[in-house]
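hey can u check if this looks right to u? its 598 residues, i copy pasted from the old doc so theres a chance i mangled smth
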Amino acid sequence: MSDEQRNTVWRFAMIFIVILLGFAAVIGRIIYIQTIERDEWLKVAEQQVPAHRPVKATRGNILDCNGRLLASSMPQYYMYMDTRVEALHLKNNELFNRHIDTLALDLATIVGEHTQAEYKTRIVNAFRRGEKRLKVCDHRINYLQRQELMKNPLIKRGKYKSGIFFEDQHRRIKPYGILASRTIGSIYGEDGVGNSGLEKRYEKELRGEDGMSSVQKIGGRYESVTIEEAKDGLDVRTTIDANLQDIVENALIEKTAERNAKWGCCILMETQTGYIRAIANIDRSEEGGYYEAQNHAVQRVEPGSTFKTIALLAALDDGKIDIDDTVSVSRTPWVYMRKSKHTDAHPMDTVLTVRSALAVSSNIALAKLITRSYEGSAKKFVRRIEKTGLMDSVYSEIPGADKVRIDVPKDTVTLSKMSYGYSVELSPMQLLMFYNAIANDGRMMRPMLVTDIQQNGETVKSFKPEVVKSSICGKSALRDIRLALHDVVWDDHLGTAAKKKWSRKAQSNLVSIAGKTGTAQLFIPGHGYSPRHHRMTFVGYFPEENPRYTCICMIEDPQYPYDAGMDCGSTVRVIAEKTMAYTGCYVIREGERVLEKR
C-alpha cells in the first residue's frame, strides 16, 4: 500500500472516530438529561404548559314554596395587589404616588377594617418590598363593596396597571337567619359540600359541575381563558312557607323561653298533601338564649300520652273494645301482676268510658284496656300498629332521621307501659304523620319537604304528594277516635287541653282544634324516670270540621309547674289562629264565620 493510500485510510478512520465520538456524546447527554436533570427539566416543561384551573360552579338556591330564598350562594372576594406591576414604577412611581391616598381613603370608607393611615402604611411598605401578592383586606368583601371599590381611579385602570385584583369565593347565606335552619341544613369545607338537612339530601342537584380555565400568554400578557363553562347547581323548591315558618318559630321561641325549657320543636303540616309548611327546632344555650342546634323533629323520643291514641285506635279497629265501654280508675295506684305500678296525673275514683279515658288521659284506664285486650297476644298489638303504615320507613327527606321503635314486648307488663307511651319511641314528625292521617279521613300522607327541582325558574323534576296508606283503620274506629280527640279540647270537665280558669289551653274562639296532650317523665341515666322532669306535647288538627293543617308542639323539660295543654296546647292554638288568618281560609258572611276553599 502506498503512502497516499495509507493517508486516505487514516483520514477516513479519523472521520469515523470523530462521528462515533459525537454520536456517543449526544447519547450520553440524552441519558444525563433523562436521569440526572430529569426533574429540573420537567419543572421547566410544566412552566411552559398553560396552567389549568377549575372554575367553581355556583351552588343552587333553596327556595320556599313561593320562591323566596331560604339559602343562597352569594359571591365574596379576597382583594390582592401585585406591587411589582411595571406601570406603578414608571416615572419615579408617579402613578402609585398620585393615587395611594385616594385608594387608602376608599378602603377605609368602604371596607372599614382599618383607618386610611393604616391602609396607606400597609400598601406603601409592601410596595417598597416589591410584594407579589399583598392581601389588601383582612377578610372577604361582598359584591356591593367590590362594586364601590371599582370606582376608585387606580383600581378601575385594571390589574395590569393598578396591580389590584380580586379572587371570588361563594359564601352560603340564609336571608331569613335561623328560620328553618336545621332543616335547610349547612355546608362545610372550601368545596361547600352539604353537611346536613336538605343541603346534604340534595347535594348532587345543588352542587352543579365545575368548569375549567387555562392561564395562557396572549399579547405578552397572561390571561385566563375558559376551556369549559361551569354548570351552576339547580334550585330546590321546598314546601315551607316563610310566613307560616315565621309564625310557628316565633310562637315556639316565645313559649320555650317563657317556660325556660331545654328545647322545643314544632311542625305544621298541610293535611291533604303532607306538605310541611313550617318546621322549627329551638335549643337553649348555656347563656340562656335560644338557637337551632339539633333537628329534634326527626329524632325519636318516648311520646308519652300522645301514644294512647295509637293504642286505642288499634284496640278499637281490632274489635277488642268499644268507644262506650267502661273502665274503673282510682286515686290509688293500680298494680299489674305485682310488678308494674300505674298512676294518673289526674287521680279520681270513678268509672270512665273509653272516650272519656282518652279525654282525661288516664294511664290506669289505658293500661287496663290494652292489657285486657292483648294479654297473651302482645305481638298482635304491635302488628296492628304496623298495619297503619307508621312503621314502614322514615318518611322524611332529612338525612339521619330516626326510625320508629315499637318492639314486640316480651311480657304483658311491658305492654301495660307501652299503652301510654313508654318503651316505645317515635319522632315528632312520625307522630304528626299519624295524627294527620286521622285528620285526613284515615289516609296517611308522607311528610314532604320538597316539591320540585328547578333550573332558571323552569321545573326539571317534580315530586307529587305520596299516600303511605290509603286507610289506617276502619271508618267506625276513625269516627270514634275523632270524637275522643274532640273531647280532649272541648270537654271542660275532663279534657286535658280544654279551657280552665287560668288558661284557654287549646280552645280557641276563632278556630276549632282537636288533638291530644302528652306528658312523659324524662329518663335520667343512673337515676331512672324523674317525676320532676317532663317532656310535654300537644298534637292536633284544625279546623276540626274540615281539617286543613295538623300541628305538633313538643317542649322538653319546662320549669315547674308544667302542663301539656297549657304549654303546648296554647302554642298550637296561637299557631292555628294566625295560620287561618294568614291563609284567609275564614271569611265572614252575613255575620257568620264560613270556611271556604282556597
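The chain has a mean pLDDT of 87.
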